[in-house]
Amino acid sequence: MRDFFLFLALGIIIFVAESTVLAMPTFQGLRYDLFIPLIIFLGLYQSIHVGLPLCILFGFFMDVFSGGVFGLFLSIYFWLFCFVKAVLRFLDLQSSFLEATLVVSGVLAENLIIILLMALLGTGQIRYVSVQGVIVQTLLAGATAPLMFVAFFKLRDIRFPKFFIR
Amino acid sequence: MFSKKIVIIITAIALLLINIVIISVGARSESELGFFSKVGVEVLASCQRSVTSIFQYSHVTWSRYFDLILVQEENKQLRATIRSLKNRVNQLKESEIANKRLRALLDFKLVISDETIPAEVIGKEPSKWFKTIIINKGTASGVCRGMPVVAPDGIVGQVINVSYHYSKVLLIIDQNSAVDALIQRTRSRGIVEGERRGLCRFEYVLRKADVQEGDVVISSGLGGVFPKGLRIGHVSNIVKSHAGIFQEVILQPHVDFARLGEVFVVIKKQTFFGNEEERE
Chain B contacts of A19, Cβ < 8 Å? Predict the structure, then answer.
């Protein structure tokens, strides 16, 4: 329960940052969906009881505020979480390199799913695809993923004062 | 009968298909925000508002400090601008009087209403793929879905979702947006749609239509959403292909969406006759 609220708070901070600070012109083209590393982390190091509701909540946040079809981000985060859990059954992924690889794959998958789904739905929502933008996002995700994972571990292992726990 | 692995795979595929069907149905329906969505918007938008306020305050303080040196020079320029604008306002008043008189003569029913709600932009689209903003006015202030949103520079977009105190606005630079428009100089009609990198595309303009770079594009009022005569942008690029009946026209919107801070939600449908051609 402690981890649930801890990562929920982190998710809200990420969401607010993505829709305010990171949406400023200064960061234009230099940002990717910061929920992806968090979802991967939850998939790798948290139980389904904690991770799955959080993924659904984060997807819900994004869908409510995004201009896309409702359920788009919720589905992406849900299936990404399931994918990580499924991969964990076959591979030992607890190394920095493989964590970064998963995040890069996640960012790429998110972009591809959005493009494919919109094309499939035929709503004409995605008519222009910036390949350069997707590449920059992917590279940035690969470069920053290890740092983000360190931050997530620090957050998970944070010790609250005793009076707070009571 | 089936192994556990096959059951899991079949379940996953079934879930995926159901997921796609649900999203497809959702994409085609235009439902209002549900209760939980509204609560989510209220809670998260409050956080967005606080963070945006802090950043705006910091930005204002920073700007004021560094801009102090430039203020004197700017002041001189502004005084000169005010003088010229006063003359312009006087001219426009004269035009307005003449316009009213002529319209009365022609028995035109001109409805001009200034009923707008000022709103502040408190958040922007969290993903890279769509272009929306969150404003701090909702149903409590009388904002409804479908209302046009404007800024002093021109059209901003349209309200697509409304909560109690917040609304989501689809910007005209989003690929889903479409505004019926015309070129102010030649009255050639077309549809303004969102394009990449904050630009717009003026679609369905006949190849034979006279379009030049710098031409101002205004709303035609025919779409039923935006009032007539509002500025959208100016033509920045034209490509006339050898084939086809339309030409490719790219617009630079007049509104600076990257720095958009305050907007106005137009409550009543109104007719603006603010463009020069119609005044004359």
Answer: 48, 123-126, 134
pLDDT of residue A130: 66
Give contacts of B123 with chain A, Cβ < 8 Å.
19-20, 23, 65
Q: Which residue of A has its CA nearest to B177?
A: A125
Question: Is A114–B23 a contact, with Cβ atoms under 8 angstroms apart?
Answer: no
User: Can you give the residue range of the structural domain that contains A76?
Assistant: 2-23+31-159
**CATH number of the domain encompassing residue B194:** 2.40.10.350
Residue B10 lies in a domain: no
pLDDT at B278: 41
d(CA B224, CA B241): 31
- Pick among B18, B22, B23, B201 to test the A interface (most A CBs inside 10 A): B23
Q: Structural domain of residue B186, as residue ranges?
A: 178-255
Residue A82 lies in a domain: yes
Chain B nearest CA to A106, separation (Å) = 15
Residues of A in contact with B26 (CB under 8 A): 69-71
Provide the number of structural domains found in chain A: 1
Secondary structure in 3-state letters for B147-172: CEEEECCEEEEEEEEECCCCEEEEEC
Interface check B222 vs A, CB under 8 A: no
- Asked if the Cβ–Cβ distance from A65 to B12 is below 8 Å, we say no
Q: What is the DSSP letter of B31?
A: P
Contacts of B207-215 with C-beta under 8 Å, sequence gap 24+, read: B207/B240, B207/B241, B207/B244, B207/B245, B207/B246, B207/B247, B209/B183, B209/B247, B210/B185, B210/B186, B211/B183, B211/B186, B211/B235, B211/B238, B211/B247, B211/B249, B212/B185, B212/B238, B213/B237, B213/B238, B215/B183, B215/B184, B215/B185, B215/B186
Q: Residue B273: what pLDDT? A: 46
Return the amino acid letter for B14: A
**C-alpha span between B177 and B193 (Å, rounded):** 6
Is the pLDDT at A38 greater than 90, yes or no? yes
> What's the pLDDT tens digit per position in A55-92?
999 998 888 888 878 888 998 999 999 988 888 877 76
User: Would you state the structure tokens that stand for residue B110, as one six-digit string?
Assistant: 């001109």
Consecutive 10-residue runs of chain B (280 residues): their mean pLDDT? 78 84 74 76 83 82 77 85 86 79 53 69 84 90 89 88 90 88 88 84 87 89 83 88 82 87 76 42
Whether B29 contacts chain A with CB within 8 A: no
- The residue in chain A having the minimum alpha-carbon distance to the alpha carbon of residue B20 is A117
State if pTM tops 0.80: no
Please report which helix (H) or strand (E) contains residue B239, including its range: strand B231-239
